[in-house]
Every structure is written in C-alpha cells, then in structure tokens.
Design brief:
The protein is mostly helical. It has 6 helices and 2 strands; from the N terminus they run H-H-H-H-H-E-E-H. It holds the Pfam family DUF6090.
Length: about 250
C-alpha cells in the first residue's frame, strides 16, 4: 500500500514538472515569435524609409527637370509667336500694305524657322529603372507617365518630325525667290532693308498668301499644344511639391 501511494506521488510530481516545462516552452516560443515580428517590423520600416528616400530623390530630380523644361517650352512659344508676327508682316508686304522696311531682317530670320523640343527626362528614366510603382500616389504616378510618354512625345514629333511643320524646306525657297531680289544689304553683307513694292503676279501672290496661311495655322496649333503642356507641367510641379511636403 505504501508503495502504491509513493508511485502516485511520483506521477503527480512528474506531471507537475511536465506542466511547468510545457509552460516554459510556450513562453519561449512566444518570445521568439515576438522577436521575429519586431525584427520584421524594423526591417519593413527600414525598407519603407529607404524607398521613401529614393522616391523623394527621384521626385526632386523630376522637379528640377520640369523647371528646365519650362524654360524650353516658354522659349519655343515665344519664337512661334514671333513666327506668327512674321507671317503678318509678310502678308502685309505681299498685299502691298505699308510695313517697316528695316524690320525685314528680323522677320526674314523667323518666318520659316523651326525649333526642337528639349526635354529633361533623366528623373523619369531613373523612375522607370527603379519601377514606376515606386511612386505610391496613383494619381501622381499616372500624371507623370502621361506627361513624359504622351505629351512630351507628341510635341517632339510635332516640332521635329511632322512634315507640315518643316517650314524651311516647305516654303523658304519659293518665298525667298520673290523677296531676295528686293533685299538691301549693308557693307558687311547684313540685310538692312527691302525695296517695296514686290510687284508679283496675282497667281504668285495667292500662292505666297496660301503658304503664309498654312504656316500661321500650323504655328497656332503648335502654340495651343504647348499651352496645354505648359499647364500640365505647372500642375505636376505643384502636385509634386504637395507630396514632398506631406512626406
């Protein structure tokens, strides 16, 4: 009987030890899991901070590029407006209206001048190499993509590849055939003035006026396109500044 009670006592002690060990093991596992979760959280936080820093640097690079783009856009718009003034000047000249003859050098230069669209895309290229999803704000990311992939691409083609916009090759030679014989040059060979009237036939006058109309129409369309892009660039700049401020 005594042996029986001793055996029961030993079994209870063993169960008690096992329970304590089990509780200890559970506690250890919980601590390990908590440690892993903390490590993962720290790692995620570091990764997010790293990505945020990269995003911010790229946005700054894009912002700087947009500032330079604005200079080119406004310069091209200015020269296209001068081109429109040249069209009006030549229109008056070909229709025998009074013009400032000493202004011929200025308008002679810009009548058929074409331009290129210089776009600073280094920031956007950096973004593409990192992955477009780096920009977390969906609307901002879409806005950036549309500007660089659609608007910039369109104005570049319009300025540099559209045959209708090649004013020099299309119109310079024929217009110059009627103008150059009347030009007056100074001792240095610079255009000084022009002798008027041009005295051209009605058929040639109509041809020249049709050329001027076409150049005016094309430059007006280019200017409208630039105006829309200018608004988009300014809006994108503002949106980037807001995102950077919030960040």
């Amino acid at each position: 009987m005594i042996k029986f009670f001793r055996k029961i006592r030993q079994n209870l002690l063993m169960e008690n030890k096992t329970g304590k060990y089990f509780k200890y093991a559970i506690g250890e596992i919980v601590l390990v899991v908590i440690g892993i979760l903390i490590a993962l959280s720290i790692n995620n936080w570091n990764q997010n901070r790293k990505e945020n820093n990269i995003e911010n640097k790229i946005l700054v690079e894009i912002l700087n590029g947009l500032n330079e783009d604005l200079i080119d856009i406004r310069a091209n718009m200015l020269f296209h407006r001068v081109g429109l003034k040249a069209c009006r000047y030549y229109h008056d000249m070909f229709t025998n209206k009074q013009v400032q003859t000493d202004s011929i050098q200025y308008y002679y230069k810009y009548l058929t001048m074409g331009f290129i669209s210089i776009q600073n895309k280094s920031g956007y290229e950096s973004l593409k190499s990192r992955g477009l999803e780096l920009i977390k704000n969906d609307s901002l990311r879409i806005e950036i993509i549309k500007l660089y992939e659609q608007d910039y691409s369109f104005i570049r083609k319009l300025e540099e590849q559209d045959p209708e916009g090649n004013f020099y090759d299309n119109y310079y030679k024929e217009i110059n055939n009627h103008v150059s014989p009347h030009l007056i040059f100074d001792r240095n060979g610079e255009i000084e003035s022009i002798q008027l009237p041009l005295n051209i036939t009605d058929a040639n006058q109509k041809k020249m006026l049709s050329y001027l109309w076409k150049m005016k129409d094309d430059r007006t369309f280019i200017l409208k396109t630039y105006s829309k892009i200018l608004e988009k660039v300014l809006r994108l700049q503002s949106n980037i500044e807001q995102i950077k401020t919030k960040g």
